[in-house]
User: Fold these one by one.
Assistant:
Number 1:
Amino acid sequence: MPDKKLKGGLIGCGFFAHNHLHAWAEIEGAEIAALCDRDEKRLEEASQKFGIANLYTDAAEMLASEALDFVDIATTVATHRPLVELAAKKGVAVICQKPFAQTLEDAQAMVNACKAAGVPLMVHENFRWQSPIRAVRAVLDAGKLGEVFWGRVSFRSAYDVFSGQPYLATEERFIIQDLGIHILDIARFLFGDVTHISAATRRVNTNIRGEDVATILLAHENGATSICDCSYATHLPEELFPQTLVEIDGSRGTLRLGANYQMIVHADGHTQTFDVSPKLHDWANRPWHNIQESVFNIERHWTACLKGGQQPETSGADNLKTMALVFAAYESAAANLEAIDVRLMA
Ligand code: NAD
Ligand code: 89V
């Protein structure tokens, strides 16, 4: 007999949730059985597009009426804590979009609430689930580069993210909280946890409120040093949005994940080039397909973890460490690049 499908409820049917819904429709072991959005128009649009009939404008009502195995929260950050705590109270497992929280206190409270309720909690931190980033990690795991001593994770673009996500232009904090968070998480994923961080930020685009450029230096527990740099003010001859580029130097060789998903590994005197392009799902659209594929990958991971009783890779507890980097980066930038000891935070 085939495994019973897990039943999920999606909260927040906005811009990015459509990617969640497309990906869920392809996940074998799970289905979205109900939708919730306090905006009826958005709720109706998603219902029509994805053929989901159980609709709610109130998350508490959805949780009271539906027998759900999990909720997938795709609202913006201000609503994460009340929604996560609501699901925990009902004993329902939770996926929560990034940025998980606006303060470390809120993030810790959500982790505590889910732990006390005994429900799994995963943060939808999907960039590390992009297949080019997994390919980089596989090279490291194979030990091909020897001891890694330096890395760079870089995202530089002038793509107009504000038309799809207008809130990004009006928040006091922008690039580190929205995008740098992914880049910092990739640095943790590739080079390990961090002891100290320094950052400088700048706002180039005067039409937005927050910073749109950040340069961040990380000292990792294993002695490696990395740079995370991100910009939405960088006009390149070829616009690479939303590609993350990676450089790694190790004692036996180097790795470069360059433009258009070309990965070059030079180790022990031999050079190999790999095309690590992401899969283009039927529903995906370029240039977003890299991110869209990672949504499918992280949802599949969640489904396997929930069925198998394992902790997801980007559990709430794990994400506290990424959140600590975000807050420490802002603290450092406000104090003119002062080095912050992040071990004292998470
Ligand atoms: P959005 O504003 O377009 O959509 C959010 C939706 O949530 C809205 O329709 C709103 O009405 C609804 N909502 C808000 N509070 C609610 C509540 N209490 N109950 C029910 N519905 C509620 O935002 P978006 O651009 O889709 O972003 C959502 C989240 O996804 C953000 O946290 C953003 O950072 C994140 N995001 C992640 C990625 C990624 O790759 N991981 C990409 C884009 C956006
Ligand atoms: O991934 C994100 O959170 C998006 C984008 C890639 C546009 O920054 O907001």
Note: The chain has nine helices and 15 strands.
Number 2:
Amino acid sequence: TDKKDILALIEKAETTHELTKDEIVALLIDTEYEAEFFAAADRVRRMYVGDEVHLRGLIEFSNTCKQNCLYCGLRRDNKKVNRYRLGPETILDFATKAKSYGYRTVVLQSGEDEWFDVAAMVDIIKKIKELGLAITLSVGEKPREVYQAYRDAGADRYLLRIETTDKALYEKLDPGMSWDNRVKCLQDIKELGFELGTGSLVGIPGQTIESLADDVLFFKSMDADMIGVGPFIPNPDTPLAKEAGGTFELSTKVMAMTRLLLPDINIPATTAMESLNPQGRVLALQRGANVVMPNVTEGEYRQLYLLYPGKICINDTPAHCRSCITGKIQGIGRKVAETHGFRVKRA
Ligand code: SAM
Ligand code: SF4
Ligand code: FES
């Protein structure tokens, strides 16, 4: 592809929000016009979702997991992890505090932990809903009836990354799990009326640029409402300890491509991006992102929810993170939203 073609592709993405797989690959591998590419994603972000940044308070309520994903520090075979579970009262307390910081959404995230059965989760969801908060769940694969029960209890959104659309690679990295079942879960989540969040890990061993292009096309085909993309960061206590990991640049490129092709969705500047680059979230907000998920987990639990080394904010308090992230957002001329921040479909 020559220079004029790259600029023409950026313009096509910005104006039509449609690209072929080959065109996506050409833009992902180009290094010469990255600035123009990111600027186009930033314009699309501004035109479709505006300058407001939505903050979602993240509660990491259990680091116990029955799965064994090769990349993740919480995998069940990692015996070095001190496992914890927050009780329902503590979860509710953190949610109440999240509200006091002005957050309009809490994200309940955990490993796949059966200790929280359907009745327990339904109870927690109902109580948090009474606070007037929107709820995002990120608790893994469940049967449709379980998703239905969470939805009936009032949960608004669900995050379940596909991680990679390369089925063989997925099943290699997530032993015992089925890629088809993960897609089935995403379909169930969408059909049940949740806002659907998915996304990918960028830079997992064996992943190609072509497969990243497939990921973005998959997000579009699923009509995802939120996409979280982040670099894979190798964890020394996992089988992928010695792998190279993803880069900040490539993960923001995949994110910017997602903004260009799914212009009206919510896209977080992810924690893993900032863990690789001290300006990572601000840069991501200027390359297509419009959401940040500050941690509202308190005390020692933050250190124990260690997916990868170098995770930011593990020694900071929720109050500190609140003022830190507000300062960063205002520092680039953006403002913190005061609404619940649901997707407003415009595409
Ligand atoms: N257990 C639930 C699940 O897997 O969907 C939710 C929690 S899981 C820790 C959330 C996300 O963390 C995963 O979807 C994965 O993309 C990400 N993650 C895990 N290990 C990681 C690593 N080493 N580097 C970057 N992200 C990682
Ligand atoms: Fe468990 Fe999620 Fe980590 Fe996989 S990514 S080991 S399901 S917490
Ligand atoms: Fe936690 Fe900046 S957001 S220290």
Note: The beta strands are 52-62, 105-110, 134-138, 157-159, 195-198, 201-202, 226-227, 230-231, 291-292, 335-336.
